Amino acid sequence: MERRSFLTRSAAVTGAALVAGPFQGLVAHADSGGARRGPGFGALRPVPDGTDGVVRLQLPKGFTYRSFGVAGETMSDGVPTPGRHDGMAAFPGRHGGTVLVRNHEVPGISPAFGNTADAYDASCGGGTTTLTLDRRGRLVDHRVSLNGTVMNCSGGPMPWGAWVTCEESVDGPEVVSPFPGQDNTKLTRKHGYLFEVPLDRKAKREPIRNAGRFQHEAAAFDPVSGAVFLTEDNFVAPCGFYRYLPPVHPMKAGRLLDGGKLQMLAVRGKPNAALQLGHERGTTYDVDWVDIPNPDPSFAPGTSWFVASAAVSSQGLAAGAAMFSRLEGATYCNGTVYFCSTQGGATAPGDELPPVPYPRFGEGRGQVWAYDVRRKRLRLVYESPHSQVLDLPDNIACSPSGTLILCEDGDGDNYLRGVTTSGALYDLAKLVVGAGDDDAEFAGATFSADGETMFVNMQALVGRTFAIRGPWDRC
To answer: Which NCBIfam families match (predicted)?
Structure first.
């Protein structure tokens, strides 16, 4: 079942922004004429795709794009390109080129793409593909790099030359799925893990079990401490913000080792702080970290998915950890980890989420938090006043100049939003979708090493990857 089947939303317009943190002076608010924003790059306009001339994006003047890596197209290894393009990272390639590692968030029970003999679990259709582009941005190679995983949502780039991909799932043969028609007894392995995908070869398909078995979303690496910060996207229960401390610093080991310690963020002096609620401008917390005694739980056959999905976070909550709503994208930038709480924040009158037949944790339109790694301090960067200003931020990236790029995952029009260092929220791109493809969204924004190209995915019925060129030095 699609996530949006769980997240039907209304879109009325009232409220006021609550902002704080590194972007001092940020004031994005709404009035009777709609949201007022900073100038950004100017008005958006339809721009044809440089590959085939079809208009798929609206962009500011001076920006162009082309698409590639389309779902269904045959890759260099003879395998059809899988769908549900999601999280992604760009790495420097040879001779000025670029290497992209891209997630495919395929849920449920389906045959693994590629060689099923190599798959982690032959009954799962998620994984990653690796794309090699030359210095002119032309796709020269495209192949399977990890298969047999499930719901590969986001992840994070690692500076030793690898992508860590995250399974947004706790499926396993012992867990009863809540989704109609999904028989988890067909699975051969437990899921809900991190997997490392090297740039120069296929992944070993070895999960990092001590980094937790939960609804993983994103990973952000701190090169000083060696910690990997992790987000959790559980739409029915409180979510945690975690850090995984490997047994050996990954920069020394040359990879992410299993056997480390998993911890969950707690607000100092405020056990089980309800951070999913609305907050005042300038909200800042000092934090501590509590240990997760059993990061890789197994369950008795027939265990409910709702029980399994909260097995790790409940350990942290018992020790006083803080509560968030649907933590999704995360990125590391100059000593700070920025991350999105997709349904966090206060609910504006008239912008409430409709009733649903399951527990729901979080009723807002999104928050952006910043964790200062050295000071151990958490700060609210931005909170959406209503869906017309910012609607459910998902993936997040940091531009070469430090601007945050937010990928929306709302039910209406979906945008890339920019938040500048001078404090302006603006529209950077709008997705143009065809009839019958209303669930299309942006995902996986990432910048080339030279900062001249933003790569971003369109997760849609026919997913594809965009390379957007423009004056990014002004972003």
So the answer is: TAT_signal_seq
DSSP per-residue letters across 113-160: SS-GGG-S-TT--EEEEEEEE-TTS-EEEEEEEEEEES-EEEEEEETT
Query: What are the start-end ranges of the H helices in 263-362?
Result: 305-309, 313-318
User: Residue 186 is encoded by which pair of tokens?
Assistant: 């067909």
Return the percent helix, strand and coil in the chain, to nearest 5.
Answer: 5, 40, 55
- Token pair belonging to 109: 């029970």
The pLDDT of residue 6 is 31
Rg (CA), the chain: 21
DSSP at 352: P
Amino acid letter, residue 338:
Y
CATH number at residue 200: 2.120.10.30
- pLDDT interval class at 419 (50, 70, 90): confident
DSSP 23: S
- State residue 293's pLDDT score: 98
- 408, 415 Cβ separation under 8 angstroms: yes
The residue type at 385: P
Tokens 């909260």 map to which residue? Answer: 310
> pLDDT category, 424, cuts 50, 70, 90?
low
Which tokens belong to 98?
A: 């670029």
CA–CA gap between residue 332 and residue 338 (Å, rounded): 6
Predicted confidence (pLDDT) at residue 8 exceeds the cutoff of 60: no
**How many domains does the chain fold into?**
1
- The average confidence (pLDDT) of the chain is 89
> What phi and psi values does residue 5 have, to the nearest 5 degrees?
-65, -25
Give the residue carrying structure tokens 């944790």. 361
Mean pLDDT of 13-31: 28
Q: Which of 17-21, 237-241, 406-410 has the highest mean pLDDT?
A: 237-241
Domain residue limits at 173 = 3-474
Give me 84's structure tokens.
């549900």
| Residue with the two structure tokens 């509590």 | 290
- Predicted local confidence at residue 19, as pLDDT: 27
CA distance 387 to 394: 14
Neighbours of 435 (CB within 10 A): 5
Contact, 323 vs 317, CB < 8 A? yes
pTM recorded for the entire structure? 0.91
